[in-house]
From TrEMBL:
It comes from Polaribacter glomeratus. This is RNA-binding protein. InterPro entries: DciA-like.
Length: 98
């Protein structure tokens, strides 16, 4: 009976190599940004958020409340900093609230 080689890889490593080989990094960043926004801002703000998009390092947040949009505009720099810390990379440089 032939001896079996025991090359074990973690699922995380396999997924990262698959994403890198198939040029899916940009799409995965977009998904991660949406999840991070919902997680960071909580259910109160998430219910008023209609769209979260990442385009060329600009995070575009569409809100259905003008009052909330105004309140969040005062803390844009803090939101950008918190998002980048949570994402673990400098993905967001500008925040647009529409």
């Amino acid at each position: 009976m032939a001896k079996r080689e025991n090359d074990s890889f973690s699922i995380q490593d396999l997924m990262q190599s698959f994403i890198k080989e198939n040029n899916l990094t940009k799409g995965m960043h977009k998904i991660k940004v949406e999840e991070t926004w919902t997680k960071m801002m909580g259910p109160g703000i998430a219910t008023h958020t209609t769209s979260v998009k990442l385009q060329n390092k600009t995070l575009i947040i569409q809100l259905n409340s003008s009052v909330l949009r105004e309140e969040l505009s005062y803390g844009k720099d803090k939101i950008i900093k918190m998002m980048n810390e949570e994402l673990g990379d400098e993905l967001v440089t500008k925040l647009m609230l529409v």
